[in-house]
């Protein structure tokens, strides 16, 4: 960021960018979570279907927001350099989405969620290593999203200042 910007303005900018970035990660998480629908058939009633979609939307949106509050928001105050902050955010969000992708595939195979406990309890239930290839793809997607949102946030901030 510009070195002439005050520290409080820089933090405000990072928080603004972080909210937008989290919104896009909620969308990515919801897209990955669509794969859970293969393991769980839709309910037979209209109310059941509505509940199914509302809980899907709320559950994954909440977890992304919680992830932001715990792993991203505090670092807006700790990490001094915006580039380092963005790299950290891209890495940590890509890691979380990769874990979700692995869990969704594990759940579709074994009808239980992936954890270290299940991995050691039943060593035959393994995940394929090719699922982990999603990590570099998510890094690229999150990097492009990050850059695009960074530029958009910069433009909006300049409009507000003028």
UniProtKB/TrEMBL annotation:
Record keyword tRNA-binding present: no
Pinpoint the Inner membrane protein YejM N-terminal domain residues. Answer: 8-159
Report TM segments. Answer: 21-38, 50-73, 85-107, 127-150
Q: Which UniProt keywords apply?
A: Membrane, Transmembrane, Transmembrane helix
Q: Which domain of life is it from?
A: Bacteria
Q: What is this protein called?
A: Inner membrane protein YejM N-terminal domain-containing protein
Q: Which organism is it from?
A: Paraphotobacterium marinum
């Amino acid at each position: 960021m510009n070195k002439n910007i005050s520290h409080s303005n820089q933090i405000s900018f990072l928080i603004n960018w972080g909210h937008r970035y989290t919104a896009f990660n909620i969308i990515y998480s919801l897209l990955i979570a669509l794969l859970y629908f293969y393991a769980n058939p839709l309910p037979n009633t209209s109310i059941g279907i509505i509940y199914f979609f509302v809980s899907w939307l709320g559950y994954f949106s909440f977890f992304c927001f919680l992830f932001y509050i715990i792993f991203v928001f505090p670092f807006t105050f700790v990490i001094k350099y915006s580039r380092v902050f963005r790299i950290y955010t891209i890495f940590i969000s890509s890691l979380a989405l990769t874990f979700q992708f692995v869990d969704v595939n594990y759940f579709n195979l074994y009808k239980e969620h992936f954890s270290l406990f299940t991995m050691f309890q039943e060593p035959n239930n393994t995940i394929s290593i090719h699922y982990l290839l999603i990590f570099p793809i998510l890094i690229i997607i999150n990097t492009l999203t990050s850059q695009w949102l960074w530029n958009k946030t910069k433009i909006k901030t300049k409009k507000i200042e003028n």
